[in-house]
């Protein structure tokens, strides 16, 4: 692999990074068989595991939910090493299918598994649980550096401890794979010059979403059971939704980011928050419970000092359905999903009302947040891109240069924008509180799309409104799988007249065949810092849908 | 009084503002007698009430603590109107003695009192309680505008609702007086071109502190029983300490500021927080309990969603005494106060250790916070001063132009400073956590000076380190009265060799006679967002001191 010193071109740095990744994957033992060559991969990767993995590996990676798997591990009905090896091999398969990994932690994971198996008693809330992690989250013990998808940072020593991961480690988990993210970590897809493009495991012509799209592709292949993402505009929820897994974005400052590596350190007008991406709902609460039980605010003092306190509804929650956001009409399968879930909730005895957000002007929210993402006009990241000579990707151009709101701000302009943000937040909060006026019960959660539709074709994720809205408001939000695109039921409305350019762009993108079988998910949103209530509402909604 | 339209000079605007104030004071009925002319006021104002007020007024304003007074009001053993009139007259006296008011709310307060007396049943947690308020806090119903001490804002319509005050109003309080603050609201004294200088009720040659120095002078005269201040660098604690009352600065975002009027709106790198200034300890918890029971986060969404949850020590707290801050040696009476309280705590069975903060570099904290106060280089406030033509006061010059750290920052410079701030906070948190290592109990609170000494002579409050340190860290902190300067016990250490320029400045300021009888207070500091624990610790400490 050689050293990175004096590598003259960005392409050589990329080759070095990929060689590092490939070397980590070459450790897989036994080798994976039965995977077609890259050029001959099927559109959907869902049938690949049957060909490449053993029945036992498939059982371990597919048959158990998180709680069940943890139970088996704790009771030592399965060894940590066997579980770890199964997920390592399945992750390698996911990489071959979707290009979702930056590194497989083969040696470290097996060493860790053996250590845990050697303990006289299992210990820790995550004993033996494999956890996959996003590349820009610094880690102790990982071989490679943390480039955060900047070629300029490839091979530079940016690892190091990470408070959240230290907590999981202390609770007995096994880190086994690190996953891709896009250039600048600010696309709702996953493409970088360092590792190329990550694709959707249900349809390689579609994106796995982003920015935590390596995690979603991996989890969508069941190559992981619990992953860690981060979300500042949809980066957990959009990819989770696009592969039909669960994802949760807490309010900021509930979960720590100390040890994460990305541009914009010290920028605090809009911030991201790490959160879980999991194959089942249990994983969301488990993640939060374990993360907060460690009292991370004692180490990272900007975090909110508040224990995790599970919420219990004493009567069925009141749900407000946001059918559209007043800017862009969702695609037909999304509207069908909303209808199906709303009906189920109503049948289960919940009060279901409409969330009419047109007067709340979601477009204004986007104008504010898109400017607050880059109060330096994007100078820092553009400089990092320039530093290596790597090309600026189209979705980077979209989110920085094509947003009319983005410019380098003076301090006074920044203050003014923060005031606008706060006023917008106050208006939204007021609207929410008002639902409880005149003898009505206040709305508990909003049920809404996590995107205008299923996963988009590559390069088309150019409308963030359905997720970024809740980042601007700092509301906690969970996504959960509902259905799949079904051409028989999700016909295009040929009479629809788009209301604006973005609406037109989104409308024209849709044809049922293009998205056939793609997962369709929904989003549950709560008021700021009501993380516990959102997860409780999600449980009620899923029960109404007939799930356990 | 006339209108403000077309007033050409800043002096005329000032005259207009003072005439407004004087007209509000002219309503006092019966008139106050027995107060010497301004030029003949005694050094201490403590004996003035006896001459000017009736025995019953003195009883009402002096004889009861807050809990007791609220009890009498609730049981209707005293009418709200009688209480209100007594405090109104005593506040007018305080104004004559210390120049602490911007407006006496004579008519409104009496009207409100009559209304409360007319209710068939008393209602609200603050039923009938007079509350005084700092001028820059917007208010509904106040006649005059909110100038925030800028001549440029005099007479402009900047009142309006204020979330915190609305809460108190809903709980049945009576607003009766509005109080002075300094130019820019960023001095630890109280002098503005609008209202002149506010003086200490114990010694008119000393400051009442600042920026909530109108409140402290008023409360130090017992012209109010509970006032609302705000603190971004010491503005509650310093003035409370200088007049021997109680004050409490919560962590930011625990209590709301919606409706406050000051420069720097939208600046969020360092923020202030309102808090109580009271004649007794009960008032601190009462303020917090009532403020948070209203769930202000539902209206002001940036606030922390966390109920007020009283803390109970199950064993005596562990106290760390900070004898000095590593920069400036406190004056002898302050060191004596520390020693007396530490001894009392030890005698009461508490573990008392030293807080050695030299390795924690408090000077560095000042470098960070002094820059973060003015990321625009002070441009906005200097512009406001220039706009009217009012002169810049020496302590404005001190905190903006004389701080080498202050300059207009680029966004990247700002981010860098925020990273430094967060790193500093993390180091401090780590040091605190470490006190719990090796089988030791972790320190519960730090006991430290709230200032290098008692109230300073006017213009000398040029070292903020003893309070601003806890703003940078965002730690909650309460001040409480301990003793008074006693020349017999507080001799100057003539052998002391100052360690730096600031230390020299502070050392040379001291002579026991100059501060004779000035109140000396101490400060109790807890970890971030542990408001409840700080107040519980203060109660334990005061019990150790033999107080109820």
TrEMBL record, chains A, B:
Keywords: Hydrolase. The keyword Nucleus does not apply. It holds the Pfam family Amidase. InterPro entries: Amidase_CS, Amidase_dom, AS_sf. Its EC number is 3.5.1.4. SUPFAM superfamilies: Amidase signature (AS) enzymes. PROSITE patterns: AMIDASES. It is an enzyme of class 3 (hydrolase). Signal peptide: none annotated. It catalyses: a monocarboxylic acid amide + H2O = a monocarboxylate + NH4(+). Residues 82-535 form the Amidase domain. Coiled coil: none annotated. PANTHER family: AMIDASE C550.07-RELATED, AMIDASE-RELATED-RELATED. Belongs to the amidase family. This is amidase. It comes from Apiospora marii.
């Amino acid at each position: 692999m050689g050293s990175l010193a004096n590598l003259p071109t960005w392409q050589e740095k990329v080759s070095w990074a990929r060689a590092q990744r490939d070397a980590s994957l070459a450790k897989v033992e036994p080798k994976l068989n039965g995977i077609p060559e890259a050029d001959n991969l099927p559109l959907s990767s869902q049938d690949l595991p049957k060909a490449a993995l053993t029945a036992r590996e498939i059982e371990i990676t597919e048959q158990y939910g998180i709680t069940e798997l943890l139970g088996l591990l704790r009771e030592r009905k399965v060894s940590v090493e066997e579980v770890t090896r199964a997920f390592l091999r399945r992750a390698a398969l996911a990489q071959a299918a979707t290009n979702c990994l930056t590194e497989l932690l083969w040696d470290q994971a097996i060493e860790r598994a053996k250590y845990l198996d050697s303990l006289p008693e299992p210990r820790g809330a995550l004993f033996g649980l494999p956890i996959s992690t996003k590349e820009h989250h610094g880690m102790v013990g990982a071989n490679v550096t943390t480039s955060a998808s900047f070629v300029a940072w490839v091979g530079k020593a940016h690892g190091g401890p990470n408070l959240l991961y230290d907590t999981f480690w202390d609770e007995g988990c096994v880190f086994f794979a690190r996953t891709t993210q896009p250039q600048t970590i600010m696309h709702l897809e996953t493409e970088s010059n360092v590792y190329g493009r990550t694709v959707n495991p249900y349809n390689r012509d579609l994106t796995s979403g982003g920015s935590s799209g390596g995690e979603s592709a991996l989890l969508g292949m069941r190559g992981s059971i619990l992953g860690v993402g981060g979300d500042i505009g949809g980066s957990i929820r959009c990819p989770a939704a696009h592969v039909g897994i669960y994802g949760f974005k807490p309010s900021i400052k509930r979960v720590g980011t100390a040890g994460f590596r990305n541009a914009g350190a010290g920028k605090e007008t809009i911030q991201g928050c790490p959160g879980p991406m999991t194959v089942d709902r249990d994983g969301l609460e488990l993640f939060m419970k374990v993360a907060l039980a460690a009292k991370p605010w004692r180490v990272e003092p900007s975090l909110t000092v508040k224990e995790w306190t599970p919420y219990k509804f004493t009567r069925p929650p009141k749900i407000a359905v946001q059918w559209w956001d007043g800017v862009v009409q969702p695609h037909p399968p999304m509207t069908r999903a909303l209808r199906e879930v709303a009906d189920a909730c109503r049948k289960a005895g919940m009060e279901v009302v409409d969330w009419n957000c047109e007067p709340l002007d979601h477009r204004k929210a986007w104008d504010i947040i898109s400017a607050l993402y880059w109060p330096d006009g994007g100078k820092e990241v553009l400089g990092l891109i320039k530093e290596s000579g790597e090309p600026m990707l189209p979705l980077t151009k979209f989110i920085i240069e094509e947003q009319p709101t983005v410019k380098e701000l003076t301090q006074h302009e920044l203050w003014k924008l923060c005031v606008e943000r706060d006023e917008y937040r106050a208006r939204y909060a007021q609207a929410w509180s008002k639902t409880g006026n005149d003898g009505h019960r206040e709305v508990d959660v909003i049920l809404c799309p996590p995107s205008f539709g299923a996963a988009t074709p590559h390069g088309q994720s150019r409308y963030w409104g359905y997720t970024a809205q809740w980042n601007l408001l700092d509301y906690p939000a969970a996504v959960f799988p509902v259905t799949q695109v079904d051409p028989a039921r999700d016909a295009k409305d040929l009479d629809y007249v788009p209301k604006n350019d973005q609406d037109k762009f989104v409308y024209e993108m849709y044809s049922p065949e293009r998205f056939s079988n793609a997962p369709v998910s929904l989003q549950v949103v709560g008021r700021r810092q009501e993380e516990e209530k959102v997860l409780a509402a999600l449980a009620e909604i899923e029960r109404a849908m007939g799930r356990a």
